[in-house]
Structures are given as C-alpha cells and as structure tokens.
Design a protein that fits this description.
single chain; 494 residues; alpha/beta; Spore Coat Polysaccharide Biosynthesis Protein SpsA, Chain A; nine-stranded mixed β-sheet; 17 helices; 54% helix; 10% strand; globular
C-alpha cells in the first residue's frame, strides 16, 4: 500500500487515491514503437484514476520511439524514460522498468495498446478488494484500430480466446497484465536471457507463478484496444517461431499443459484433425490430381472473398488484382478442361463481382441488399464447387474431418459472424484451419528440439535455472537486468 511504501515512493507528495488503494506503476517496453506510443500514453492520460508513474523502457529502437516518449508533455502522471542500451528483448526491458518502479502493483502494458478510461481504476479496485490476489490479466476488446481483414481476424481471435478463458487463469499476459511488485520480484521476473525477442516470456513467468500456488485472475471486463497492424507473414512467423515452438518446449520442460486459453482440449483436437485433413487432401490429390485439386482451390479462393474485397486498400492493388484475375481465369480454364463447366462462370465473375459489390464486414458501410447479394453469390458458388468434387471413397473421410474441425471451433465462428458478419467468418475459416495445421507443425519441431536437448544433456540445466520460486534465486532474469552506467544519465523524470 502507499502508506507502507512511502520510503520507496519518490512521488509521495502528490495527490493520490485513498490509502486503501494500491499504487500502480505502468511499465511499457517499446521497440520501434514511435507509431503507437503517443496513442498509448494519451489513453493513459485519459484514465479516470492516474497511475503513480509511467515508465517507458526503450529497447534499442532505431526510430523516434525514445524521443517521442521524452517529448510527451501535459501528462497527469510522472513519466520516466529508460533505455536498455541496445536490443535486449521485452522481458529484459520489463525487468529493468520493474527494478526502477515504486508502485505496489506493476502494470505491464504493450506499447501498441490503448487502455480504457476505467482500466487503472479497475485494477486498483480489484487488488484492493482481494488481498490474496497475486496477478491480474485482461483481454483485447472487439474494436482493434486497423480495419484490414488480417488485423481484425487476428485481434478478434485473441479477444475470443481470453473472453472464453477460465477466470482462474493458468498463466500471465504482459500485453495487459498487473502483478504485485513483491510477488514479481520473488519469482525473479521475466526470463530475459532465454527470450531475447518477443515470445512467451510472460507465459513462462505465469507457469512459474501458478506452479508455486500463486493466484492469477482473468478479468474479461479489463479490456484494452490493440493498435497493431498484422500481415500474413507476421501472423505465421509469430505463431510458429515466437509462440508455437518455444511454448511446446516450455510445456515439455514443465510437464504442465492446462486445459485453458489456447491449450483447451478442443484446440488440441483441432490440431490433430487439421493434420489429418491435410494428409487426406494430399492423398486425394496424389491419386486423382486436378479433378480433386481444382474444386478444392476454388473453395479456398471463394471463401476468401472477405479478404479479396479489400483489394483497393492494399499496398499494390493493381498488382494484386492482376494476380488474382490471372489465377482465377487459369483455374476456370482448367475446370473447363477437366469437364467441370459449372465452376467456370462463378470463377470468371469472381474478381469483377468482388470489385463491383465490395462487400464489407464493417456493419452499416455496405447496403443490406448489396451485402445479401454478395453472401448469396459466395455461398452458391461454394455449393457448386463442393458438388464439382468427384465422388471418391476417401472423400467421405475428408468431409467428416472437415465437419469435425468446424464443430470443434463452431463457437468461434459464430462469434465472428456476430461481430463481423458471414463473409468475414468464411474468409477466416481457411486461415484458422491453417493456424491449427502449422501449430501442429510447430509442436513437432518443438518436440524434436526438446528431444535433441535431452540427448545433449541440456534440459536438466535449463530446468534447474527456470524453477525459481519464492525465496529462490533466479540469476538469468532480474539479477542479470541492470542499467548500463552510460545510460543512467538518460533517465528522464517528467
């Protein structure tokens, strides 16, 4: 509480909340975040309850991140700007900020996130009302800033996972997560040595805390807005390199796989079904060639209509349109050559229909008749494509796997229909299926890396290092986090 930590509080002479409320230090790691940081700070400035302090830790940015932070003015809270002295990773940056923080509660916030006006006050009330609570995590809201399809899909998927998670959380999330300072320090902070780039350093900390009996709560009403713009490459790279592989290795090291969030049983089965679906598709294609491949490709591109409708807003719209048209026309020609005339007209009209109707998943931006006509066209074309698949014994198994994968994720797809309408959901389904497939691929790579590490005798040493809890040393995290002497003069108090 503030009264108990007045000796550590450099801002004790400021007007604050009542003594019953814990003080909050907001810690924001920032790497090349000049585009977002000002919006993040502005949202904090609009809070109904000001934090004790905000600490921005620049992690060796090559843009104007640090200068933007230092130039911020008129804020209702003290702003401190630290630097790691080079690219050290967000875990290291958060540890550095936590060592300089004075608040009872450390509120970790990503630099591309905006809080709601009630966020800080809600965190204060939650910790004040539950002295046994050790940490609190929130969720992205359903209104991400970027309205391109991939950003909407990615952020809505993350929001859905947290909105359907268990209230008694099984891990920690540093995008919007608060933890008592003494608990954070007792557990050694984030492992900035093992995770030198954005990865699962928050999940790893959460596992250590939960396995030591700490209480972490997921508050579904503690919602923040994500500002990040996602691309297809950034989604795949993040899911495989930064999350899938290291998370698999963490699960195998810890022998801990809770039935929660991304690891729910439905998601584990979805990975298995997706791998089987790809295997059966490959077998069908190998046996029947184009007669199977053509209608499957037609289904794939027709479902992505909600994505292709954004062609005019893409970086190189003419090039994208030319490539799409060439591919669809080639596919239509092959369909005609392989005696599938019913597929030709829907495919040939596809690019022109998308450009003319421009069905938007943003409600109230497309006339109801136009959107209804677009949805009817796409659904009818999908039905034609499905009926064009020649009957084969394995095809029944393929449809059964497809139906099972859909049922396992039906709640999520209905959620997308409710939030962004049916064409958005149809476009999201192929990406979501692919998400499960490469999660399985990531698991196999992580399993292989773990087995190889065991063979080389490394796992034992890693487990000993990462099993730190209360009262134990954790040399790879906070003890290794120090501010270089040359950078100490560059801390600015505002």
């Amino acid at each position: 509480m503030k009264a108990e930590r007045s000796d550590l509080n450099p801002y004790s002479n400021q007007a604050t909340l009542s003594a019953q409320m814990p003080s909050i230090s907001v810690i924001i790691p920032a790497y090349n975040a000049a585009e977002y940081l000002a919006l993040c700070l502005e949202s904090l400035a609009s809070s109904t309850s000001a934090p004790l302090e905000v600490i921005v830790v620049d992690d060796g940015s090559s843009d104007e991140t640090r200068h933007r932070a230092q130039a911020a003015s008129g804020l209702p809270f003290p702003l401190r700007v630290l630097t790691t002295g080079g690219r050290r990773g967000p875990g290291f940056a958060r540890n550095l900020g936590s060592k300089q923080a004075a608040g009872d509660i450390l509120f970790f916030l990503d630099s591309d996130v905006c809080v709601a006006p009630e966020t800080i006050a809600r965190i204060e009330r939650t910790f004040a009302s539950d002295p046994a609570l050790d940490a609190l995590i929130g969720s992205y809201d359903r209104k991400p800033t970027y309205w391109n399809f991939l950003s909407q899909y990615r952020n809505l998927m993350h929001a859905y996972v947290h909105q359907t998670g268990e209230a008694n959380a099984s891990t920690f999330w540093s995008g919007c997560g608060a933890v008592r300072r003494e608990v954070f320090l007792a557990h050694g902070g984030f492992d900035g040595e093992l995770y030198k780039r954005p990865a699962i350093e928050d999940i790893e900390l959460g596992y250590r805390m939960v396995l030591q009996g700490r209480k972490i709560r997921l508050d579904r009403e503690l919602q923040v807005t994500h500002l990040k713009r996602w691309s297809l490459w950034s989604i795949v790279r993040t899911d495989i390199v930064d999350r899938g592989i290291p998370w698999t290795e963490l699960i195998l090291r810890r022998h801990f796989m809770p039935n929660d969030l991304n690891l729910r049983l439905s998601q584990r089965f979805s990975v298995i079904v997706a791998l089987l679906l790809v295997a059966v598709t490959a077998l069908l294609t190998a046996r029947d060639g184009a007669s199977i491949l053509i209608p499957l490709l037609a289904i794939f591109f027709l479902m992505l209509a909600g994505w292709w409708s954004e062609i005019r807003n893409m970086v190189r719209p003419r090039r994208v349109l030319a490539l799409l048209t060439c591919f669809v026309v080639l596919l239509a020609m092959e369909a005609y050559r392989h005696h599938m005339p019913a597929l030709v007209l829907p495919l040939v009209l596809y690019p022109f229909f998308i450009l003319a109707m421009r069905p938007s998943y943003i409600k109230d931006t497309t006339p109801a008749w136009s959107y209804s006509l677009s949805a009817f066209y796409i659904v009818a074309s999908l039905a034609i494509a499905v009926l064009s698949i020649p009957p084969r014994p394995l095809l029944l198994l393929w449809f059964l796997l497809l139906a099972l994968l859909t049922l396992l994720n039906l709640r999520f797809y209905l959620f997308l229909v409710e939030e962004r309408r049916i064409l958005f959901m149809l476009a999201a389904v192929p990406l979501h299926f692919a998400h499960h497939f490469y999660n399985g691929f990531s698991f196999m790579i992580g399993l292989g890396r773990h087995c190889w590490a065991q063979i080389r005798g490394k796992v034992g040493a890693q487990s000993a290092t990462q099993s730190a809890g209360p009262g134990r040393e954790y040399p790879s995290a906070l003890q290794a986090t120090s501010l270089p002497q040359a950078e100490q003069t560059e801390i600015s108090d505002r």
